[in-house]
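Notebook p. 47: complex prediction with magnesium ion.
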Amino acid sequence: MALIVQKFGGTSVADTQKILAAARKAIRERRAGNQVVMVVSAMGKQTDHLIELAHELSEHPNTREMDMLLSTGEQVTIALMAIALESLGYKAVSFTGAQIGIRTDATYSRARIRSISTDRMKRALDEGKIVIAAGFQGIDDDFNITTLGRGGSDTTAVALAAALQADRCDIYTDVDGVYTTDPRVVPEARRVERISYDEMLELASMGAGVMHSRSIEFAKKFGVLVHVRSSFSDNPGTVIGPNPERVDAPVCGAALAKDETRVSVYGVPDKPGVAMKLFSRLADAKIPTDMIAQSSSAAGKTDVSFTVQSDDAYKAKEVVENIVGEIGAESYDIDEKVAKVSVVGLGMLHQTGVAQKLFHALSECGVNIIMIATSDIKISALVNRDDAVKALRAAHSAFQLDVEPTKEELEASNGVNATVANFDHGVSARLISHLAGMEDVVVESIDLDEGQARVTLYSLPDVPGLAATVFDRVAEGHVIVDMIVQSSGRDNLANITFTIPRDELEAVVAVADRLCETYGCNSEFDARAAKLTVRGSGLRSHTGLAFRMFRTLGEGNVNVSVISLSERCAAVIVDEAHGKSGRENLIKEFSEETF
Ligand code: ASP
Ligand code: MG
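Predicted complex, structure tokens below:
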């Protein structure tokens, strides 16, 4: 007898007819002899509706009361689902998050799951009942109701599948699988047959709407096989697991995060620990930051730019406003009209020219890139919100994401376990008992690469096509570029920093000289750069982690010049002389998270 977790999103339970249809899907599994746990969302747009009500009363409603309010949406659905199942002649029982013991931390509106007690669910399952669990909610140590963040029912479902060691987790939704990008925005988008955990995690965390990114983090960590499928058709859907769809494609998908905000703090004193103070405040306020770019401006000063989701813009502004005077920065500015386009793919790990291709695609349609950030399997470009759709389309077609894989390609990637997920249930059981919280970060390794050099070009004109031109020139010398960061400074000037293998530096210096002649910019080189990489899972979305990394390095007086963050990899460029001690300090700092 297998154990199946089925999750139904808001549109799949929007009215009583749909609730009956979902109930029948559970019954089908039950009749096939399986045990079934259903996880349901609030009906239709109920959560939005409740939020609107609160906002009629207050601009910034109390977060504890918001969670109290929003959790009611799911509670309605579980009861109706149980009633539906019983009306169809099947035994069922509904549970709230508290009743099944989903313990979370006390961070209202985006609580993280610490533990789940499975006893009560197992007892009900053994009595032959279909268990219906409320998604999106839990309780903290003081029995306050918490919620996991918008879309959090996915995370409940995968977490339950992990805790119950389910054989499968089926996510029923209003689309029939995972697409190369949002088909409502790019009609050529195509459903993928399968996608690896790492790729899906990155896409979800970069704005692909299909799944809550934390649910994929769970899936990867505990080896849960996730099947995304339509509530309204019997199409095959998409399997999220260890294997990519094809091994040799550089990019598997593109994502658009439309509501981003850029924050720049100018003229920050360039002393160890100052920029860190800013990020520590943001981390304290639980504001996830992305696309961090730092670059020296005038002597002894540096500009720091980063992006936050527009939902957090108001809180970020408050933090920045308070800290500017405190750290002696000159000014700051905030642009709330930007969007982030990202391309993701495991194939990037061993292919060159991928970033360049994206820059070209954007340049050809006249889109200006405001910021660039890359990591091992992702490239993000920040653009004006008005250009966002155009940029996404251009990226999608540049990487031919609409082209179906051939049978051979599908077969070739079949046994390719590209992710770390060699986790069998035994390992995941050990992990669960080892982790203080199920959603805690897992660190796999901390590596040092001493053979790097850093190149920075300052005060480039911030115009469409800039990055394409710069990296074309660099590529002419057959140089393999690793990390790329672009930030726009004041006065419509941009800085671009990238890293290369050290023995390529001479060739790149010549290229940089020519670029400086063309653009009237300045360049700076660090021939003795080293890269420190922390690999693991959930590294980007756990806001505190990057901060702990900077703090640890800062306390050892290690100056960080380039930062790159993805879910599976956090990398920084430091001075080579500090590489070894930096690595040792990081190993100490993350000893508890390392397995
Ligand atoms: N009802 C919640 C929301 O709309 C949780 C979910 O649907 O996953 O965000
Ligand atoms: Mg939802």
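Notes: The radius of gyration is 24 Å. The longest strand covers residues 442-461.
Next step: compare against the earlier run before touching the bench.
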